[in-house]
Amino acid sequence: MYDVCALGELLIDFTPVGTSDQNNVIYEQNPGGAPANVVAALSKLGKKTAFIGKVGNDAFGHFLGNVLGERGVDGQGLVYSDEFPTTLAFVHLQEDGERSFSFYRKHSADQNLSKDEVRFDLIAESRVFHFGSVSMTDEPSATATLEAARFARENGVLVSFDPNLREPLWDDLARARDQIRAGLGFTDILKVSEEELYFITESEDLERGSHMLHEKYAIPFIFVTLGEKGCFVRRRHETATVPGFSVPVVDTTGAGDGFLGGILSRILNFDDELARLSKDDIVKMTRFACGVGALTTTRRGGMTALPGSLEVKRFLAERK
């Protein structure tokens, strides 16, 4: 039995690490892809995880497959393609650690995961299924993703969704909104940024926007991340704002994925008692997740920067 199985993109993040003697930027090869980062975070936090996705049968793809194994993520759902290459992303860091991406993702392997290649048995053997919207930009992976989410919901598996909107990857933002809304129909646990909440609901008010999502899609848990300001949480009709942490930021890549891994790890600890969670319980689990996200920003890279449970607990204990 797995705690969490994720489906989606697994790719290379090339992260700047300085300049050469010729004053050219030097990039470091790092494993990336939001759904993969989430299960890697959960594995680091002591949970049993699996990943479903597609990479190229190339040096990058085999590097990524090895990384999953090294991080304790079951990679038997990873498909290697002889036809399509592994996706590459170049990360551009600002002085404050904020990042933007340049994607090399035309006819890449992760876009071409078909429904027939999805290991539905891994989803059925999991307590939580997690997915994002990047795998819904193109066919056949869009259909494969939504079918996997539908299967999870129909088989009593909790469904976690992070839209993780990457506008440059979509040819049509109206279609992006439609695909994200389709995913919301299967969702039990939603993580969105402020910008994504506005994109989906066209409301800049956290209370109103999150209420709209809860009312329309009956999503029990909604987490709106606010960067170092923390997180706005809605559990049905109950809301709270949990403060974040100010830390020396090196690279924000993977911070949201670390946050979501932290949330899911805490939710999993309650087993079948989610309906009985108190507001205090939810605030505590969100604070833990904010700690995971904050620590992730203090190191370079996404998956490689994720902290373990003891580090998070020490970090939080020092800030009581």
What does this structure look like?
- The chain has 320 residues and is α/β, with parallel strands linked by helices.
- It has a single domain (2-317), classed as Ribokinase (UDP-N-acetylmuramoyl-L-alanine:D-glutamate ligase, 3-Layer(aba) Sandwich).
- It is built from 10 helices and 13 strands.
- The chain has helices at 34-44, 59-70, 120-124, 141-154, 173-184, 194-201, 206-217, 255-268, 279-296, 309-317; strands at residues 2-7, 11-19, 25-32, 49-56, 73-81, 88-93, 99-104, 126-132, 158-162, 189-193, 221-225, 231-235, 238-242.
Q: Write down the domain tally.
A: 1
CATH architecture: 3-Layer(aba) Sandwich
Mean pLDDT: 94
Poorly predicted regions are: none
Annotated CATH topology: UDP-N-acetylmuramoyl-L-alanine:D-glutamate ligase
Please report which band the strand proportion falls in: under 5%, 5-15%, 15-25%, 25-35%, 35-45% or over 45%. Answer: 25-35%
**SS content category:** alpha/beta
SS field, number of helical segments: 10
Q: Quick one: CATH class? A: Alpha Beta
Strand tally is: 13
Helical residue percent band = 25-40%
Largest sheet: 9 strands, mixed
Q: What is the helix/strand order?
A: EEEHEHEEEHEHEHEHHEEEHHH
Spatial sequence of strands, sheet with the most strands: 5-4-1-8-9-10-11-12-13
Radius of gyration: 18 Å
Specify the CATH homologous superfamily.
Ribokinase
How far apart the termini lie comes to 35 Å
Shape: globular
In short, what is this structure?
This protein has helices spanning 34-44, 59-70, 120-124, 141-154, 173-184, 194-201, 206-217, 255-268, 279-296, 309-317; strands at 2-7, 11-19, 25-32, 49-56, 73-81, 88-93, 99-104, 126-132, 158-162, 189-193, 221-225, 231-235, 238-242. The protein is α/β, with parallel strands linked by helices.
